[in-house]
Design a protein that fits this description.
- The protein has about 500 residues and is of the alpha/beta class.
- Helix content is about 45%, strand content about 15%.
- The strands form two sheets. Strands 3-2-1-4-5-6-13 form a seven-stranded mixed beta sheet, sandwiched between helices.
- A hairpin with a 4-residue loop joins strand 5 and strand 6.
- Helix 5 packs antiparallel against helix 7 and helix 12 runs parallel beside helix 14.
- The longest helix is centred in the N-terminal third of the chain and has 21 residues.
- The protein is globular and about 65 Å long.
Length: about 500
Amino acid sequence: MDRLNVILKAFDGDPLDKKYVLERAFKNIPLGTYVSICDKKEGSPVLQADEEIWLEAALFREGRYSEEELNACAPIDEALIESMRHYEAVFMDMVDRYANKMEEFLISGDVPYAERKRIYYANLRYWNHMLESKKIDVVLMNHEPHQCYDYVLYGLCKVKNIPILYLARVFTIDTCFVVADWENPAPELREALLRLHEEEPDPNKPVELSKNYEAYFDLFRNKQPAPWYKPKGVKLKPQRFVSRWWRQAIKILKRDPKRFVVSLFSGQFWSRKLHQHKAIQFYDQHIRVPNLNKPFIYIALHYQPEATTLPLAGAYVEQDRIIQLLAAHLPPHVGIYVKEHPAQSERCRSEAFYQSLLAIPSVTFIPRETDTYELVDRCLAVATATGTVGFEAMMRQKPVLMFGHFVYQYAPGIYQIRTVEDCKSAIQEIMSQKEPHTVRDVRMFLKALEQCATPFPGPPDSPFEEYTQREKSELVGALIEQKIRSVVSGLPAI
């Protein structure tokens, strides 16, 4: 292969770390065609290629394809449509993320089923044609595929056996992995952990960590950690409708004045907003101070819509399914304490959602301001899809029932739940008071992370990281080149 044809997604803008990452990644790889999908050309990488195509990301996020564009694309057939059914189903849910960005649905906030289908098939036709006509060899994304069109692109690559890679950032230790499959995000980490256990079988031998990773170990073992990656100043107390809305309104006015004016004078819009606000009020009106002396499972709900649940939670994107499954198999004396995400707004929640949870006898809603680390320390186990709370619990030697897919799924004390049997088996082990994973197990996992992970450039930055942003960009760029060479054969040697 003389030249690599590649699609690059979301490597643009400030800070310039993304630009430097790609310039390093392709320094030694000759390019034929590269297609760059981003919000603006400014800050995009400067790459040497035979052909450069720049595409505006916002148009694709909102599903805006002209008839002229689509008619220039090859039509799709039954074989392709059927092979993509799984990705189609996920896409149909994913559209909710951009309903309030699409001009014709600003007021209703919902995209009708027929329109979702139309957008999906437009995406399928466009990106299938792009992959075929440009003979794309690899697709590289700056994050998990979660913006509708990029999930179609991900699915097409899987169906066509075109390598697709994306950067997955692990905020808790300010590092990243280059991922080829979101359901098995870091096989190299699993292998490193197995190798370490084989090389160091003596349970009494101390596990040595670098200065940085020793600092991470100390941070998460602290009774009251103060993680740099958590936003400051998040309002946890219940808010009235006006106080909740006016801040959001100012943001919309600055970013999209037309949307603000249309919404301001729409009775349907305000009716929808009031209905959504009642959902949040319902949660706040039904919170109870938790009894921490009672055995309980702690569930910190995910912020939605976000990639952490769609697609990374798989079938458990609707978090009530997690709670229903747990409740069905927990002993009657074990409670389920549910804490809403501090930043969760009215979107992706309804009064019916909260009512269905409260109808489960073992479920208790607890105040958002309840200390998460005390809950972790006092619970029997944590349940989550892919949340940070799972990593934090693992570090503090608490079992984790994990219903999604993320890098720490290979860690000690993690029970991956896919089936009823998985859930029943995990609960039985936890309730049998089986000895939790040890401090040594935690340190071994950190050591495996240290061997596999690469410091990530860009905010929020770990106070323990000693590399500069430019140095981290070079490291991530080198990692991307290595990954591309591992999945694409025939590239010229360095």
